[in-house]
């Protein structure tokens, strides 16, 4: 199998390109280490939503709804307040309509490329974000830590490994998600109507008018129940919904089926992600975002057990780590 890893550009932006057989992927180190493209070049499938050349400036201003952005800490925090072990960190309120902070601090800043390489079986790139005093993230999360992200491309598709290492002297919060943006359709000859999906959701969290959890669940609709077994369009209704995750057969995943092509795109995300967000831009056909998330939205402000809401604490020296995989498979009849 032919493999390659090299530095190049993507629509004028510095990029690391990975190639392995029929697959290629592109990472943008200076834009939050966003894996902006994952493609099957033989079938001309583009699995992730990519910005066109004329969209690059708008993308860099808001790099959330393309590729696989890293959110740390993810989603919304009421009035920008983040209570932690007797302190309250004040985040900027960057979503005026809700009065909340949204999406954290790492998705739109440069990450360092530690290395990239290839061998006879795969290509890979390792990126890191080292936060210390003086770093832009340290202003809001005053801890010493490193987030490391490794992408590997091989004949099985795209593999992701992420870790957070607490390198300071006090316990730190570890809350993380990916705003993964999936094309539907991802095949050039398919239509949105050819697509159905399945997700390992459990309960739906009730959200208030500020899109913050009330701490209670709301009943799933009949269509939402279908999400657990598949056969439902990702555009069946407008979604900006928050769910618990309930693994099936020990796996936590989203599966998107293209009936015309006879292909299923599987997004295995690891069972450390205890929550899902799903957003489809008001059921606008073309893409949707199944977002694996460690924690409940606004978790530090919610009076529920830490284990239930994914409020993870890392002690000095500890490492949190998880993997995910994105890959297509042929549908068997």
Automatic annotation (TrEMBL):
SUPFAM superfamilies: Galactose mutarotase-like. It comes from the Bacteria. Pfam families: Aldose_epim. This is Aldose 1-epimerase. It comes from Paenibacillus plantarum.
């Amino acid at each position: 199998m032919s493999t390659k890893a090299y530095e190049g550009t993507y629509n004028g932006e510095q990029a690391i390109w990975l190639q392995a057989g029929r697959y290629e992927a592109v990472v943008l180190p200076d834009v939050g280490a966003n894996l902006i493209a994952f493609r099957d070049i033989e079938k001309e499938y583009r699995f992730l939503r990519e910005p066109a050349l004329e969209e690059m400036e708008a993308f860099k201003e808001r790099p959330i709804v393309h590729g696989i952005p890293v959110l740390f800490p993810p989603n919304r925090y009421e009035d920008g307040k983040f209570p932690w072990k007797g302190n309250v960190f004040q985040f900027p309120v960057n979503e005026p309509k809700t009065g909340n902070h949204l999406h954290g601090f790492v998705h739109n800043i440069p990450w360092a490329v530690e290395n990239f390489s290839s061998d006879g079986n795969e290509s890979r790139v390792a990126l890191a974000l080292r936060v210390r005093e003086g770093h832009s993230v340290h202003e809001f999360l005053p801890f010493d830590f490193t987030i490391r992200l490794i992408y590997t491309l091989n004949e099985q598709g795209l593999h992701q490994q992420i870790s957070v290492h607490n390198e300071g002297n006090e316990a730190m919060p570890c809350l993380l998600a990916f705003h993964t943006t999936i094309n539907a359709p991802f095949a050039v000859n398919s239509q949105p109507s050819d697509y159905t999906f399945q997700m390992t959701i459990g309960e739906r969290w009730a959200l208030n008018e500020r899109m913050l959890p009330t701490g209670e669940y709301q009943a799933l609709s009949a269509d939402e129940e279908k999400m657990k077994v598949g056969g439902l369009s990702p555009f069946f209704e407008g979604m900006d919904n928050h769910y618990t995750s309930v693994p099936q057969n020990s796996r936590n995943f989203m599966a998107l089926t293209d009936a015309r092509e006879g292909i299923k795109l599987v997004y295995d995300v690891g069972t450390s992600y205890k929550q899902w967000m799903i957003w489809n831009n008001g059921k606008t056909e073309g893409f949707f975002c199944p977002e694996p998330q460690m924690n409940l939205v606004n978790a530090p402000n919610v009076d529920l057990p830490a284990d239930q809401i994914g409020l993870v604490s890392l002690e000095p020296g500890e490492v949190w780590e998880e993997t995910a995989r994105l890959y297509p498979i042929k549908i068997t009849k």
